[in-house]
Amino acid sequence: MLVWMLRKVMAERDIWSGAALARLLKEKAGYDISPPSISALLNGQPKQMKADTLDALCTALECTPNDLWVHTHPNVKALN
User: Which of left, alpha, beta for 3 (phi over 0: left; psi -120 to 50: alpha)?
Assistant: First the structure.
């Protein structure tokens, strides 16, 4: 099972709001994202994601996809 860890990665970098994430995406990755899209990323586990979005998140947050997703056994819950 994949667990979405965006909020944890953001907290580790002192990013506490969707607006701050959107600004960071624009500044560091040149990536524009709508408020509803930011909200969807923050409020639930994505069922799908564009490669461009994942690339921008990794660039802006200086992380890898392995930081944003954690694979666990289906019967074990990861801590968010």
Answer: beta
User: What is the tens place of the pLDDT at every residue in 26-57?
Assistant: 999 999 999 999 999 999 999 999 999 999 99
Q: How many CA atoms lie within 13 A of 52 on its CB side?
A: 5
70: which strand partners?
Answer: 3
Confidence of residue 73 (pLDDT cuts 50, 70, 90): confident
Residue 57 one-letter amino acid: L
Q: How many whole angstroms from its chain centre is CA 37?
A: 11
Degrees (nearest 5) of the Cα angle 45, 50, 55?
95
